[in-house]
Amino acid sequence: MKLVTVSALALMMATAASAETFRWAGTTDPQTMDPHAVNSAPVLGFLNNVYEGLVRRGKDMAIEPALATSWEPIGDGEGWRFNLRQGVTFHDGSTFDAEDVVFSYERASDEGSDTRSWFAPVADVKMVDAYTVDVMTKAPNPIFPDSIANWMIMDKGWAEANSAARPDKEAGNYATLNANGTGAFKLSARQPGLTTTLVPFDGWWDEAEHNITEATFTPIDNPATAVAALLSGDVDMINPVPIQDAARVDQRDGVKVIRGIEARVIMLGFGHEADLLKYGENAGEKNPFQDVRAREAVAKAVNVDAIRQTIMRGSAEAASQLVSPAMRGYSAANAARTAYDPEGAKALLAEAGYADGFSFGLKCPNNRYLNDEAVCQAVTGMLAQVGITAQLDAMPVSNYWPELRADNYDMYLLGWSPGTFDHEHPVRFLVTTPNSEKKLGSWNFGAFSNARVDELLPMIQSEIDDTKRQAMIDETVAIYQGEHAYVPLYVQPLVWGTQDNIELTQRPDNFFILRWVTVN
Questions:
Q1: Which residue in 44, 46, 95, 86 sits closest to 65, CA to CA?
Q2: CA separation for the pair 320, 509 (Å, rounded)
Q3: What DSSP string describes 166-235?
Q4: How far apart are CA 380 and CA 377, in angstroms?
């Protein structure tokens, strides 16, 4: 990703001088403008300003109507009927109707789509009439409307006319650099890695709460440069403010720090399926992480409290499972996390046949999560204390995801924020056995597999009784904790910085919604 200096940023923003112009910066440029190509927060968060779904999340994260005005269950759990909003147009003036919804289902659930796992519970999507759509599910699915807040609807005619009827996350297509949504803002200019500019859509169906005339996003992957840009007034907002700079920024006149707790759990993942190590001095030898004792040793060797206090400056909360306590389905019965116990880690390694330790490769992004590379460096040092040598390879996130999808790692760092704010979400994506046909486990890079978890997932998805459902989730958590499928570390904090004259809403999903921004 290109490094943007403060001086260069000032030049790029020189024409953006009016009070209603808004300029913001983040560490990660959205990889694409295609809402079905890449299932990542930088892409989905940005495109929530341009595209819309049948439902959306409000300021309090509650589900509310968007392109559907209402919805109701069909029969005895056969599916959901969505009644569509009439009078909506896409940014190019085309009319929105049920054909676009059916097309967007076919596109978003296509083999080449990174969002296809969202539709694992779906049997079919049928057009009843021009403004009514039935989503048929394979089993009763009481949380389905909550699960599709980020499923964005594309214009069938526009996509087909521009040879973008299906997403192409590898080679790209017209929808990679262009957009035609129904959202409050439309794409004005796109220069990947440099700037992306949005302008208000005058034909938007809803009432605007913002006063922005133009909004420009600039990726700045150097934290010091981002802070300097905020303090100099070259940008109105940065996300994130580096943890180590938050206090200094807070003390400066004219700017402010907005703090919160994100829904994202940061964790370590393993190459469960790999028979051999790929990196380090022991590359080509048996993979120790196929032994649960080696995975538990990692959990015992990592001092999460030290990471929280030193690297995260006390802002993060320790995690015991793949969701935070604020999420639906959090397992209070499994709230305890593996205790820091380096001697216990050494004993487990010896028991597993690795008394002298081993060497392996740890992959990590360096511009995706707060202090991600620093966290991986700390983990590397902690593992070394128990005799495990991690060969750390940190890289920009644009290179990182392809490496993980190509299985080029022995262990890796991952952050996960459940799009549904429900524990079912990470179970479906991260813990269920990968199955392309069933659209399951699409982010389970290490291919962790447990037959009982696979059996429990559809039961969790279809159970209406909350008590029974929670018991199933508790059992699932006990399994993945006991197997140390992942090593949950902490819940990432939210730390945004803005000029004093900016009013906005900070949601725990870390999505930045422009339609709630006011420049005073």
A1: 86
A2: 19
A3: S--TTT--HHHH-----SSEEEEEEETTTEEEEEE-TT-SSPP----SEEEEEE---HHHHHHHHHHTS-
A4: 5
Rounded to whole angstroms, how far apart are CA atoms 81 and 125? 10
Q: Look up tokens 């005619």; give the residue.
A: 157
Residue type, 322: L
Digit-coded pLDDT (tens) for 286-326: 999 999 999 999 999 999 999 999 999 988 999 999 999 98
CB 121 within 8 A of CB 141: yes
In this prediction, residues 477-483 reach a mean pLDDT of 98
Q: What percent of the chain has pLDDT over 90?
A: 91
Region of 3 (left: φ > 0; alpha: ψ -120 to 50; beta: rest) is: beta
Q: Contact 288/360 with Cβ under 8 angstroms?
A: yes
Alpha carbon separation from 488 to 270, 447, 498 (Å, rounded)? 12, 17, 31
pLDDT at 174 (0 to 100): 98
Q: Could you identify the residue written with the tokens 């982010």?
A: 443
- Provide the token pair at 32: 């694409």
Report whether 218 contacts 3 (CB < 8 A). no
Torsion 229-233-235-241 (CA) sign: positive
Looking at the DSSP bridge assignments, the partners of residue 65 are: 55
184 in Cβ contact with 151 (< 8 Å): no
Please write the tens of the pLDDT for every residue from 5-26.
444 454 444 433 444 899 999 9
Token digits of residue 352: 């597993």
Which among 354, 328, 331 is positioned nearest to 482, based on CA atoms? Answer: 331
Token code pair at residue 430 = 């991260």
24 Cβ contact list (under 8 Å, min separation 6) = 215, 216, 217, 218, 235, 236, 237, 238, 239, 512
Across 155-170, b (16+ Cβ under 10 Å) vs e yields: bbbbbeeeebbbbbbe
| Helix, strand and coil percent figures for the chain, each rounded to 5 | 30, 25, 45
Helix (H, G, I), strand (E, B) or coil at 121: coil
CA distance 434 to 431: 8
Beta carbons of 94 and 158 less than 8 angstroms apart: yes
**Of 53, 59, 58, which is closest to residue 144 (Cα–Cα)?**
53
What whole-number distance in Å separates Cα of residue 9 and Cα of residue 228? 11
The string of pLDDT tens digits covering residues 76-99 is 899 999 999 999 999 999 999 999
Contact 292, 302 (CB under 8 A): no
